[in-house]
Amino acid sequence: MAAIGGRAADAEEAPTLISDLFRAINDRIRELKDAPTGECAFICECEDEACMHVLRMTIPEYDAAREDPAQHAVLPGHQRPAVQDVVLRRDRFVVVKNVLRQGGGQ
Ligand SMILES: [Zn+2]
Fold first, then answer.
1. Distance from residue 48's CA to the centre of ligand 1 (Å)
2. Which helix (H) or strand (E) holds 58?
3. DSSP state string for 69-82
4. What is the distance in A from the centroid of ligand 1 to the CA of 4?
């Protein structure tokens, strides 16, 4: 007789932003892709938690977008102009940078 124990532990630390969660997933995708050939599928890093759309970037494009930790790669149209500046615009994706809000702060 075998007891099957399966307990799903809650994550101890929840990501503060949904985009950070998707970025973590994308980092894993990135780690698996050493050869910068062709386009890879990454997950849109926009702030919409329901968005699970895939965008296609090359590894150099992704690395360039990630040079600044405040930047995220999102699908065109998924940027939020009120809190994000577009730093790079392509047909396949847009790189946005979070900007500090007046009176806000995190
Ligand atoms: Zn999105």
1. 6
2. strand 54-58
3. TTEEEE-TT---TT
4. 39
What is the side-by-side strand order in the sheet with 71-74? 71-74, 94-98, 84-89
CA angle 32, 87, 61 (to 5 degrees): 25
pLDDT band at 17; cut points 50, 70, 90: confident
**Burial zone of 77 (CB within 10 Å; 0-12 exposed, 13-18 middle, 19+ buried):** exposed
Query: What separation in Å is there between the alpha carbon of 50 and the centre of ligand 1?
Result: 8
Ligand 1 center–CA 62 separation, angstroms: 16
Query: Diameter of the chain by CA atoms?
Result: 63
Q: How many other C-beta atoms are found inside a 10 Å radius of the C-beta of residue 21?
A: 15
Q: pTM of the predicted model, to two decimals? A: 0.69
Centre of ligand 1 to C-alpha 11, Å, is: 24
